[in-house]
Amino acid sequence: MMKERLQEIREKALVQINSTDSLDKLNEIRVAFLGKKGELTEVLKGMKDVDPKDRPVVGQIVNETRQAIEEVLENAKKELSAKLREVQLKSEVIDVTLPAKKNNVGHSHPNTVALEEVKKIFIGMGYEVVEGPEVEYDYYNFEALNIPANHPAKDEQDTFYINDKVVLRTQTSPVQVREMEKGKLPIRMIAPGRVFRADEVDATHSPCFHQIEGMVIDEGITFADLKGTLAEFARELFGPETKVKFRSHHFPFTEPSAEMDVTCFKCGGKGCRMCKGEGWIEILGCGMIHPHVFEMSGIDQNKYTGFAFGIGLERIALLKYEIDDMRLLYENDVRFLKQF
Amino acid sequence: MNTSLNWIKAMVPGLDVTDQEFRDAMTLSGTKVEGYTKFDKNLDKIVVGQIESVEKHPDADKLVVCQVNVGNETVQIVTGAPNIPVGSSGQKVPVVLDGGRVAGGHDGGALPEDGIKIKKGKLRGVESFGMMCSIEELGSSREFYPDAAEDGIYILGDDAVVGSSAVEYLGLNDTVFEYEITNNRVDCYSVIGIAREAAATFRKPFQPPVVTETGNSENVNDYVKVEVEAEDLCTRYTARLVKNIKLAPSPKWMQRRLASAGIRPINNIVDITNYVMEEYGQPMHAYDYDTIAGGRIVVRRAADGEKFVTLDGQERELDSSMLMICDGEKAVGLAGIMGGENSKITDDVKTMLFEAATFDGTSIRKSTKKLGLRTDASGKFEKGLDPENAMAAMNRACQLIEELGAGEVVGGAVDVYPNKKERVRVAFEPERINSLLGTDISTEEMLGYFKMLELEYDEAANELIIPTFRQDLLRTADIAEEVARFFGYDNIPTTLPSGASTMGKISFKQSIEDVAGEIAQFCGFSQAMTYSFESPKVFDKLKLAKYSEFRKTVVISNPLGEDFSIMRTLPLNGMLNSLSTNYNRRNKAVKLYELAKVYLPAEGSELPDERVQFTLGFYGDGDFFTMKGVVEEFLEKIGMTEKPQYDPESGKEYLHPGRQANIIYGDTVIGYIGEVHPDVTDTYGIGERTYIAVIDLLAVTQMASFDRKYKGIAKFPAVTRDISMVMPKSVLVGTVEKVIEKRGGKLLESYNLFDIYEGAQIKEGYKSVAYTISFRANDRTLEDKDIQPVMEKILKDLSDMGIELRS
């Protein structure tokens, strides 16, 4: 009697489960059959009427029935969940080509982008980045760099004067002298910064621009080291195929002095508009630190030698990013800045 | 400095190079070639022809038909040139043959890039197999070829060989090179100097002109007395005399040389002076001897206010720093710059006083600047010329006078040379040279270079004796450069410095700047760069008070103009100009930042206080609190995690009076923030509300830190309480927050303003403000009894301040 009843419940439950298409209904079915007031529980309540010797058997059948229903319920639930998830996913297809939602982050100035590259290269080679004043003593800007009063080079640089003793620095080289005077050797430094010259504003000139000075002083530093260092720098900055050429030149604070050209990074040296058909582009001035500069800064030139170089930052930025007018660098139009 | 290759080759006969080879090699060895112009670039198939006959053109009045012998044949050429009359014959002319090219048209206009191709053709039905050329068609002008016809075919001299190259005959088979001479190489402002470099660069023998003895049996010292009063400004004064001057055109070869250097031939005397100036780099001056009172020359300083008429007819006012050449009575020349009107050579000149002197370069340079008068001569003198060269040039000029038959040179020379320039000696240190260069060059090789450069080697003393024209060679480093130049910079090895390794790094200050840039960019600001100098008018644009300390500036004494005349004391003008530029270009919602210095005059220091300012500015898309958010993001990132205070009593004239605040950290004002005053945005033409924040990076660098210590994440829940209050509008919410912080005690975790409201339901002049306050302990779950006393304290303080608490 009880057995039939259980069989009946089981079949009834299975029919209901199989015909269900929602998780809620499945749960209702669970409650209806297996819940505290469910049909199976009701049957269990009738156990007290069962002959005690039959109770284990009946109990087992009850358990089997419960397990069977639970198992079917569980399977149905899984199946149904999967089906529902599938429906959900299908309904949620998006057009991935719709526009992005950007955070609109800001951009660095091209000078900064170029400077960061240069800094990274030299920091990697053990150089410290140092700074010095932009309004500078005439002494540091000229005299201590072997450009005495009345030296023609002083006129050539179109200096802005504050008074007889103070100028707007025309080069970052005075930072060299200030570092040397500290007397801590060896030195490997670069000094990026703003410099000033009385040039009228046009496509290739600005009265306010930036240089990167570099200097190494140690025992046994040679011109060959200068060449090797700057060649390495050029390859890092302009690409591994870059070749360099050193031309003899003159600067008052270095001897021997040179200018360095690199193979045009646009045409690779074949000659193009950028390099004016030359295949080479002038990048920097350099040389071995002049003995007189050592003397004035109190460094023993019999023990130490060193080299120095100066790079025009704007020149690098204009060339590298193919910017055709220097004025763009100081206008700060965001349509320009956003490209860097 | 320009020289033609043929002139160089005249002194370096073995030189056989292409233009490009010459340019490359000279540039590498230090005589930088800026560019070159090949005169015969577009001259092809141009020969000397001789006209055999000229007949009338049958169908054209203005044309004639010529038979011209061009060497191997006679060709028929039709021309309209006015100087070839019918019936004439025998003239030698430049002829471009069929298929050749000329440089330009006969009108002498701009030369086409690739010249003009000449082909046989018919002119009014008569065949023409080429063209006879004018000087303009050959790419030059009568300025440089004064013997060329004014309008028509260039009639060549009788010495021209029929059938030979007319280009060569006219010296147009040449290339002129333009050099950038560095100011340490005064000797290279001369053909001799460049030729010496070329000879050494190409390892060819150098053959400078050989100067012979000149002069008659008279003695110039009987004619001329020279006194140099200002010995400091005149290092040497030499003079010679030329009698019986016969002014005439100089010979073709000299005219051609001058033309190649861009100098117009005038007459033999002027041309010789110019020729020697080019050749030796020594300017010379010629006075009409008959105008020199008493045959006396006195070299002295001018008197202050002295007036003098230079040979260009201009009256100039002088001062005592300037050097004058005078005769017994009057001034006759402005030393090293320009001669005087009163003593200049005219066509009637009979006797000429030739001067070759050297002057203090600095003095000449300063005088030219003061007078605003720069000449070819002063351009050379201001470099500081070699006195030894002066006499050599003088003798060369006299040699040319005799060779050209331009006059009779009087014997002897006047030479006032009080301090003879001695040759410098430099110790020869080959090991030191090699160790400076990183090379292993043999002593013999080095000595070989020195020989080419005319440096003598004194073996006994082991010293190099430097010629006087090499004023740049004073020590071993200078000698090392000579070795490097001729060993070849390219041949020096490339190595990397050895020795103790050093740490590559940036300073703490620089890393603070880097973080400022990162945060600004993260918040949508792009980096601007603006000029460090500006106009003093900026202060009025910014409404700065008359007495404002920011009006005290570092002033440039020689600015490019008022707009660039003072060093900025505030970073605002650059930022506002940049925003204005963007606004005017219709860029929407622009955010910029700049990291750059202001320059504040510093008491007791000659140099100003340079302070890096982190300046942020924007319009559109945000408000005061957007900017405040950026400031706080930055401060948190650099470890300034305390809550900054904002003091609205910041007194910035350029900011909105009700929307500005000083940013205070601890007790220090580290910057300010605010909405730009509408008057100021109007002035700058920005049609939107504009916000600014300026942080003094020097100040924050002293407080910043990148040290971080982990604090445990709370294990126990927080308990929150909301308070809601009504208070006068004038009371800052900051004062409420101060109470919460002060009374919140150890348990206070955070507080958060979640509502602020004014308007309906709130009485006029009041605002409703609501906070959530959060408490937490890290050792237990807080209970009401923990919170209650704290809340009571907070509420008491607030109501004591007259703040009305709601519910």
Key terms:
heterodimer, A: 340 residues, alpha+beta, BirA Bifunctional Protein, domain 2, 2 domains, two-stranded antiparallel ribbon, rod-shaped, B: Phenylalanyl-tRNA Synthetase, Chain B, domain 1, Phenylalanyl-tRNA Synthetase, Chain B, domain 3, seven-stranded mixed β-sheet, six-stranded antiparallel β-sheet, 20 helices, 27% strand
Overview of this structure, please?
The complex is a heterodimer of chains A (340) and B (807). Chain A has 340 residues and is α+β, with helices and mostly antiparallel strands. Chain A folds into 2 domains: 2-91; 110-337, 2-Layer Sandwich (BirA Bifunctional Protein, domain 2). Chain A contains 13 helices and 9 strands. Chain A has helices at 2-18, 23-34, 39-45, 55-91, 110-124, 138-141, 152-156, 174-182, 223-238, 291-297, 313-320, 328-331, 334-337; strands spanning 128-129, 135-137, 166-168, 187-196, 208-218, 244-251, 254-263, 280-289, 305-312. In chain A, the strands form 2 sheets. In chain A, strands 1-4-5-9-8-7-6 form a 7-stranded mixed β-sheet, with helices on both faces. A two-stranded antiparallel sheet of chain A has the order 2-3. In chain A, strand 6 and strand 7 form a beta hairpin. In chain A, helix 2 runs antiparallel to helix 4 and helix 5 crosses helix 11 (313-320). The longest helix of chain A is centred in the N-terminal third of the chain and has 37 residues, at 55-91. Chain A starts with a helix and ends with a helix. The model of chain A has no long low-confidence stretch (mean pLDDT 91). Chain B is α+β, with helices and mostly antiparallel strands. Chain B has 6 domains: 2-39 and 175-202, 2-Layer Sandwich (Phenylalanyl-tRNA Synthetase, Chain B, domain 1), CATH 3.30.56.10; 44-169, OB fold (Dihydrolipoamide Acetyltransferase, E2P); 220-416, Phenylalanyl-tRNA Synthetase, Chain B, domain 3; 424-490, Phenylalanyl-tRNA Synthetase, Chain B, domain 1, CATH 3.30.56.10; 508-701, Bira Bifunctional Protein, Domain 2 (BirA Bifunctional Protein, domain 2, 2-Layer Sandwich), CATH 3.30.930.10; 719-806, 2-Layer Sandwich (Alpha-Beta Plaits), CATH 3.30.70.380. Chain B has 20 helices and 39 strands. A 7-stranded mixed β-sheet of chain B has the order 27-30-31-35-34-33-32, sandwiched between helices. In chain B, strands 3, 4, 5, 6, 7 and 10 form a 6-stranded antiparallel β-sheet that branches. In chain B, a hairpin with an 8-residue loop joins strand 30 and strand 31 (609-619). Chain B is elongated, with a radius of gyration of 42 Å. Chain B starts with a strand and ends with a strand. In chain B, 43% of the residues are buried. The model of chain B has no long low-confidence stretch (mean pLDDT 93).
